[in-house]
Amino acid sequence: GAGVSQSPSNKVTEKGKDVELRCDPISGHTALYWYRQSLGQGLEFLIYFQGNSAPDKSGLPSDRFSAERTGGSVSTLTIQRTQQEDSAVYLCASSLEWDRAFSNSPLHFGNGTRLTVT
Amino acid sequence: DAKTTQPTSMDCAEGRAANLPCNHSTISGNEYVYWYRQIHSQGPQYIIHGLKNNETNEMASLIITEDRKSSTLILPHATLRDTAVYYCIVRVAHAVIQGAQKLVFGQGTRLTINP
Fold it and tell me: In this complex, which of A55, A56, A109 lies closest to B44 when CB atoms are compared?
């Protein structure tokens, strides 16, 4: 597709279960980002990938959160032992590679996965 | 990190120009100003970005002051579909890893277009 694709669009899970969220970036985009947005709040940065490596994991809220990216394309965000406070919309974005200076490449977002932990 | 300040909310009449201000007084020389908007239940949508010069595309115009401490996003002929939260963002460079950058979102401006 032309844009960033995320699946599932909605996920309801019971507290304590593990969940996996998937992101398909725009073809050719080497940078990939995960954000989350709680109800009525702004976007919170989670993790960033350049290729398959994650140089910035500073936003992951706890060790229950992990993410991987394979083949420089698809990424999965895994939340283990989900808690009710994990309920949010999880957004993925991708962008082109940039040069050594400050980036001139916009991020393009998917429509997110709405996670509800009951 | 350069931070931005935006009004919490604004109203504009349909068909008129919507002018959304943003202050970024601590912006550094090579940081870009980006604008995104978010319509309910959707991911943020890229609008426009700029460094020093004014920019225009099919969606909007971006006016950056000469000292780069503020900017204005202009939607020339606002429609009801432009009702959204508009985010003004300065692209932050990672403190340790050159080129590793992320967008830091504030609370944005909730723009309501009235018929």
Answer: A109
